[in-house]
Each structure stands twice: as structure tokens, then as C-alpha cells.
Design a protein that fits this description.
Rossmann fold, elongated, alpha/beta, 4 domains
């Protein structure tokens, strides 16, 4: 049996109240106890803030692909095109999931919260189950249904509930209300009860941290605690405050009434005014606002007494939570609370201020009474168990499936929307938005691999990073993984567009017509190939939204040297890079590093700077870039000045350095090294190929004006691919004296051409070169000079390490490794 659970009850503001806790906990327990049944979750894309939290909650319970996202038009008026089409679109989406049963955890979510819930608007009511919390608005319409719009809304929800195949009540009290007030048959309404999470237990260590917690909420004395789970008339605040104001002076002097509830500014003012009118001092009533679960548990554990004076509850989870945390609990003798509290002497008449006052006095002063409440709770709370509730629910769902099996026919959504359109007359914009929602829900025929090349599309600087990007794109097009649509994209004007024009011009590869806006679908994979750190402040929120809509979000990480050695870069680059590193840590599902060293550095960074995320931390893995990055990408032609340098390279040993002139490569030291070697009588050339970088004005001046320039020292700041290839072939050895390296493209190019290597003893070079390089240690001029001199002596005897047997990944192998690493085969 496939059970699809609509989780909107855990997505709206209800997630801050008991309904949200119930929706999430029941669904988790059903997933835990599902056995051979398949459980899928349906989440509303218009409520993105909760999606990552729900994903995390089900991380080890169901596969992520069974968490499905649907989109619907936004609306704020009932009965119009947007609201009615949204109902049909949602139900059509659920039908496409092929459910045997649809379970709605909370039917009465408000349309003002972008929630869309209906039963049978598009068929299938006979196999829909609905959780019933209470019928409080039906019982007290004067307090909750004050407008005709609200009356119509609520009446429609009741009709849908009665139309459903099964109602799961959260208490026997709610079950009886459904049977008695709505006329539903007894066999259709099942009491599955309720429970609380295992985190609700006494925190015996809280006393050590109590001063800090209490100071946070301005609590200075023993607490009488109330966690109402909402703010409305039935929560009985006025009678509670009045009863508290009538306590003996000694009790009021030593206690504070603490109310834990999410309140808006108007509600906060109303409560404060009410307390003042009843004679309560400013320090006698504490309104904490919304608190986290951890803080709530700690407040429960520190409370002297927990009171629950509500006039009407479907269940009353806070009372059970407080009992589980070891605090004496007293509450109303009405509706479901006698079931929850389970002890007659702990109950009072919530409509009697005197009854509340007497219970408060006894609960604060009678130690024997308090102990009876605590001991009773230890036994009673064990009767409420989420697994038991889930098993009862599953048994009821199985019975429903047996009598109301899945029907093969699927209603026609377009036909249904055509009927709605006749009544509501939607305009072109509304129809377009509706079409976008339908397209998203249906998904793409092929999963898209969206390669973000925003930097490359706008500017090709021909750096090693951008050469790697071009190489990977070219090979990924050739690989053409099965059932994967390779689509380079770029960010511009606040949106992503397909890079169709660029792909055709650069690779002669047709990916589509025109640079149209990107259509994102659940299951697509976004992979940032470029280092787009300068765009991160603009794209981060969009990436978060993409993740909430079910996309996998991955970034290629070339190195994090900027964070490790900020002095090597301009200040603005360092701050931009750190912001990018934080942002990708917060949203990424995958961080793909170009070496194991980079992966280790990234893990270390996030260990010291934990990401701000509700889901599990990103998966961090590594692969290697191909060595033949520039194959087939050669430009033709040599400059007229090439002859002099190439002749000099033939006359004597020539050592080559390639890479942007930047601080980490310390070309100034290299110059000093060769000056020392020339003084020692070593007849060798130094050839430097690298464009001008940053913070290197002094180095550039020396390269341009050195006495050995164009004699034994040659610097080329810009060469085409053909010329560079000839230089590699003419050189005798390649030097990389970088103080920090995680990429090594020039080294790979050197190996490709069979050049021996002299490299600094860095972890990256040890990882890629192993025994095939001549390593040197130390950071002084003499260290490198001695290493070169030693290499020259070994070379003269043909004893130097060679790279002829050194293995490198090809471009094709690198791209295939990337696809395999991300499980995209």
C-alpha cells in the first residue's frame, strides 16, 4: 500500500503549535512502522521555510526521492480562479503519485497561509483519511467564525471531512465530537490518540545552566508555567490571571506566572493590559514569546507548577509534555484534558476563578499533593506512544484500503480547470502562473544537470579554473549520461538562463534555442562549475529556494587558500570568498573538491565554522581534473620574438615556471634563487610564463628590468596555446615553488609533456606526484637554490626522478569520475 501524507500541517504557522508537532510526529511514526507499505510526503512549495526541517526529520526514515514538492498558485480569496485551480492542481499532483491512501495531517489550515487542502475536489475522497483535532470553531462560532468568509471556509472544510473515507481523531473526546456533532458513523471515526517526542524528559543538568536561561527570559523567581500552544479566548488567560492575582501575597512574592506562546505585538499588548487591569505587577507576568524545544523542555524542568486552564482542547499536548518533564501538572476537567492528565484530583473547573485559585495554592504549597502528581505522571505518560498511535492509524488505513481500493482512472486536470475557468474568468497572467505550477508538478522528461558557468559566459579569462570548466563541459556533452539532460546556465538580471547561445558558439553543441529562463524541477541537479563567488550575495537566496523545491545543490571547490592565507589576496577578495564559502556551506547538498587535500581543508573549515542549516551537512568528496585540459583547444601562431628565447633554451638547461604572477607563488624569491645560482656559476635559464596578477608590482618591475632579461631570464605575460606547448617541449624541467597549491594545472601540463618536476613539499604535490618529483623543503632562498643545484647534478648523471610513468586522468576520465562521484550515471 502506498500512503501519501500531506504535510502542510507541519509547514504553516501551525508548526509552532501542537498541530504542527502532531503532524510531524505522527508522520514520522507511520514511516517508522510502515513495514511493507511505501510512505511518501507531499510538501507545498509555497511554504518553503519548513521544507529543509521536514527533510531532516525524515532523513533516515524514507528516501529523499519520496519527499515530493508540489506548486500551486498563490491566493488570498476563496472561490476565485487561484484558489479553486490550486485545489485541483494539488489533487492532480497527488493522483500522479499513485497513492492507495492520502492522509491529510491537518485539513483546517488557513488559505491566508498559502495552504491548499481539499478532499474530493478532483476525485479520490473515498480513499482520503483526515486527522481530526477538534471542532472548536463549530462549537464556538461567535469567537472563531465572525465573518461570512470564515463561515463558508469552515463549512467547506467540514463537508470535505465528512466526504473523506476515514477520520483519525487525536482523542476520544474529539472522536465523540465528530460522531455527535457531524453525524459521522462510529466506524468511520477512529481514536488514534496522541503522544510526545522522546526529547520531553526531565533535564537533570539544567540547574547548572538555569541562571543563564532564566535571565534570558527575565525570570527571577519560581515559575507557575503555562504553555497554551496558541492565543485565543478558549485558552482562558483572563481567569488564570485573575486567579493568580488572588493568591496569597507570600506566594505572589515568591513566584512568577510565565506564559510561553508565540504572540504578535497586538496580542502581547492585550495580555499586558489584561494583567495590569487585574493588579498584576510588571514582574509578575512573563511573556516569553516563541521558544525553541530545548528552551521549552528546560522551562518545564525548572517550573514549580504547570497549569493548563484551557476551556476546550482536542488533546492538550503541552500538559503531557510537562508531565513527561517531571513537573506537577494541573488542568481543566473539560473535553480531552481528563484523558491527558488522567488524575481526578489534578483537575479543576476552568470556568471558576476560585477553583483555579485553590488548585494553584495546593499545587504550590502541598508537598504530598505535588508528589502524587509527579509519581502519577511517571506511569501515565507511558500510555501515550507515537508508535502505538501510528500502528492504530495504519490498521485503520489498511481497512480503508480494503473497502476503498485505488481506482485506475485518472481525472483530466485540464478538463477540470476548464470548468473552473467558466465560473471564474482568469486573466492571461493567472493562466500563465497556473501553467507554470502544472509544469513544475509534472517535472521534466529528463532530469537536468544544470551547470552554472555564470563567470565564463560573461568573461573568459583563460585561467586554470576556466580552462577546467570548459574541459568538463566539453567532455560532459560527449559522455551524454543516460537520462540526464546536460544544460549549462548563467545568472543575469536576477534569474538563471540557459546558456544555449554560448554552448553553440563555444562547443557547436545545441542545447536549445535562445537563452530562455531556466525551468527548475524537483530532482534536477545544480552544479556550480565556475567559482562564482562574486555573485553569491545575489544567488544565495535563489539557491536556498531551489533546494527547498527539491533540487540537489552542488558546488565545485577548487581550493580554499583565500580563507587560509588572506594576505595573498586583496582584502575585498578575501571577504567575498569567505562569504561565498559560508553561503555554500549553508545550502549545498554536495561539495565536490578537486583533490583529497582540498576536501580535507574544506571539512576542517566547516568543523571550525559550522554551517547554518537544518539538514545534514553537505557531502564532501573529491576527484581529480584531467591532465589534457587544452587538447583540441589550441590557437595558432608564434610571436616574432619567440626565436631569441627558443634559441637560448636550446643552448643551456632551461627551467620553466608557469602560472599567474601572484603572492603565493613568490616569484621574487625565485628570482633571488636564480641570481644566487648564476653567482655560483650555474649556466641555466629561468623561463616564466604568467600574466600579471595582484599585489606584485615590485616583482613585475624586477622581471621587466632585470639585467639577465632576454639573456637567461625570460618572462612572457601572455602566450597563445601553441606557443605555450612549444615552450613546454623546449624546457628541461618544471619548477613549482608555490607556498600553497590545490590545483596544479601547469604541473599536469608539464607531466603531459614529460618534463621532470621540482616542487615544494606540499600535501597536494605529494598527493599527485608521489615518487615522480624532486621535492624540496624549507622557505629560504638557499633551500630552493640547493634543491635546483642538486637536481642539476642528478640530471647530469640521469638519476633525477622522471614523470614518464606518472599516470593522470584524461579529460574524459575526469568527467566520468565526476558523474560517477555524484551518482548521476
Amino acid at each position: 500500500m502506498r500512503i501519501v501524507i500531506d504535510m502542510q500541517g507541519a509547514q504553516t504557522d501551525s508548526r509552532f503549535r501542537g498541530i504542527g508537532r502532531y503532524s510531524l510526529s505522527l508522520a514520522q511514526a507511520i514511516a517508522r512502522n510502515a513495514g511493507n507499505h511505501d510512505v511518501c510526503l507531499a510538501l507545498n512549495a509555497q511554504l518553503p521555510e519548513s521544507i529543509s526541517t521536514i527533510r531532516q526529520a525524515f532523513e533516515h526514515l524514507i528516501p529523499e526521492e519520496r519527499i515530493r514538492i508540489f506548486d500551486v498558485p498563490q491566493f488570498n480569496t476563496l472561490g476565485n480562479w487561484e484558489s479553486r485551480s490550486a485545489e485541483a492542481i494539488r489533487e492532480a499532483f497527488l493522483v500522479e503519485l499513485n497513492p492507495d491512501i492520502v492522509l491529510i495531517t491537518s485539513l483546517f489550515e488557513g488559505f491566508w497561509a498559502n495552504a491548499v487542502l481539499s478532499v474530493g475536489a478532483f476525485g479520490g475522497a473515498h480513499r482520503t483519511a483526515v486527522v481530526l483535532y477538534d471542532l472548536i470553531p463549530f462549537i464556538y462560532p461567535e469567537n472563531y467564525l465572525r465573518t461570512s468568509e470564515m463561515q463558508n471556509y469552515y463549512q467547506q472544510k467540514l463537508e470535505w471531512m465528512k466526504r473523506s473515507g476515514l477520520v483519525l481523531a487525536i482523542s476520544e473526546s474529539s472522536r465523540q465530537e465528530g460522531i455527535r456533532l457531524l453525524g459521522m458513523s462510529e466506524d468511520k471515526v477512529v481514536n488514534i490518540s496522541s503522544a510526545i517526542g522522546g526529547q520531553f524528559r526531565p533535564n537533570i543538568k539544567i540547574k547548572d545552566k538555569a541562571p543563564e536561561l532564566l535571565s534570558k527570559f527575565a525570570i527571577q523567581r519560581s515559575m507557575v508555567l503555562y504553555a497554551p500552544g496558541g492565543f485565543d479566548t478558549r485558552k482562558n488567560f483572563k481567569r488564570l490571571m485573575e486567579a493568580y492575582s488572588l493568591l496569597p501575597e507570600s506566594l505572589r512574592r515568591n513566584h512568577q506566572l510565565v506564559i510561553v506562546s508565540k504572540l504578535n505585538q497586538g496580542q502581547h499588548q492585550e495580555m499586558t493590559t489584561m494583567a495590569k487591569s487585574l493588579g498584576l505587577g510588571k514582574d509578575e507576568l512573563i511573556l516569553t514569546g516563541y521558544v525553541s524545544d530545548d528552551d521549552l523542555i528546560n522551562l518545564y524542568s525548572l517550573a514549580r507548577l504547570f497549569i493548563f486552564p484551557s476551556l476546550h482542547e482536542g488533546f492538550g499536548l503541552p500538559a503531557l509534555e510537562a508531565m513527561a518533564c517531571g513537573v506537577p501538572v494541573v488542568g481543566s476537567m473539560t473535553t480531552s484534558l481528563p484523558e491527558v492528565i488522567g488524575l481526578k484530583e489534578a483537575l479543576f473547573d476552568p470556568e471558576s476563578v476560585e477553583s483555579i485559585r485553590q488548585t494553584l495554592v495546593q499545587g504550590l504549597t502541598d508537598e504530598a499533593y505535588r508528589q502524587r502528581l509527579i509519581e502519577h505522571a511517571k506511569v501515565h505518560v507511558k500510555k501515550f506512544n507515537w508508535d502505538n498511535s501510528a500502528k492504530t492509524a495504519l490498521e485503520a488505513l489498511e481497512k480503508l484500503h480494503a473497502i476503498a481500493p485505488f481506482l485506475d482512472e485518472k481525472p483530466d486536470l485540464i478538463e477540470e480547470l476548464s470548468k473552473v475557468a467558466k465560473d471564474t474568468k482568469p486573466d492571461t497572467k493567472a493562466l500563465r502562473l497556473t501553467a507554470n505550477c502544472i509544469a513544475y508538478n509534472q517535472g521534466a522528461q529528463q532530469r537536468q544537470l544544470l551547470l552554472d558557468i555564470s563567470t565564463l559566459v560573461h568573461t573568459d579569462t583563460k585561467t586554470g579554473t576556466q580552462r577546467a570548466v570548459i574541459s568538463l563541459i566539453s567532455e560532459l556533452f560527449k559522455l551524454n549520461p543516460r537520462e540526464l539532460n546536460i544544460q549549462p546556465i548563467y545568472f543575469t538580471g536576477g534569474i538563471y538562463r540557459y546558456a544555449n547561445t554560448f554552448c553553440f558558439e563555444k562547443f557547436l553543441h545545441e542545447t536549445g534555442t535562445g537563452d530562455t529562463p531556466v525551468d527548475f524541477f524537483q530532482g534536477d541537479v545544480y552544479l556550480s562549475l565556475d567559482l562564482n563567488m562574486h555573485l553569491s550575495h545575489k544567488t544565495h537566496r535563489l539557491h536556498c529556494d531551489m533546494r527547498s523545491r527539491g533540487l540537489r545543490i552542488a558546488y565545485l571547490v577548487y581550493d580554499i587558500l583565500v580563507s587560509q592565507y588572506p594576505k595573498w589576496w586583496k582584502d575585498d577578495n578575501a571577504s567575498i570568498f569567505l562569504s561565498w564559502l559560508k553561503n555554500i556551506g549553508d545550502v549545498a547538498t554536495d561539495l565536490i573538491c578537486i583533490s583529497q587535500l582540498v576536501a580535507t581543508d574544506v571539512k576542517s573549515f566547516y568543523k571550525q565554522n559550522p554551517p547554518n542549516r537544518s539538514e545534514q551537512d553537505p557531502t564532501i568528496r573529491s576527484f581529480h581534473l584531467g591532465a589534457d585540459l587544452e587538447k583540441t583547444l589550441l590557437s595558432i601562431g608564434l610571436p616574432t620574438s619567440s626565436g631569441q628565447m627558443l634559441s637560448a633554451m636550446q643552448e643551456r638547461l632551461s627551467l620553466l615556471m608557469v602560472g599567474t604572477i601572484e603572492p603565493r607563488d613568490d616569484y621574487l624569491q625565485a628570482l633571488a634563487v636564480f641570481e644566487l645560482l648564476w653567482q655560483r656559476g650555474l649556466d641555466i635559464n629561468l623561463v616564466v610564463v604568467g600574466m600579471r596578477g595582484w599585489l606584485v608590482d615590485g616583482c613585475i618591475e624586477q622581471l621587466e628590468n632585470h639585467p639577465q632579461s632576454m639573456l637567461k631570464l625570460f618572462w612572457l605575460d601572455s602566450v597563445n596555446d601553441e606557443y605555450l606547448q612549444i615552450i613546454y617541449q623546449a624546457a628541461d624541467c618544471f619548477i613549482d615553488a608555490s607556498e600553497g597549491e590545490d590545483f596544479g594545472l601547469p604541473v599536469k601540463k608539464a607531466v603531459q609533456n614529460g618534463l621532470p618536476l621540482i616542487v615544494r613539499d606540499l600535501p597536494f604535490f605529494r598527493e599527485i606526484a608521489t615518487e615522480y618529483a624532486h621535492f624540496f623543503q624549507g622557505h629560504s632562498t638557499n633551500d630552493l637554490a640547493d634543491a635546483i643545484e642538486q637536481w642539476v647534478k642528478l640530471h647530469a648523471k640521469n638519476l633525477h626522478p622522471t614523470t614518464t610513468c606518472m599516470k593522470w586522468l584524461s579529460r574524459k576520465e575526469s568527467a566520468a569520475q565526476l558523474i560517477s562521484l555524484m551518482d548521476l550515471n
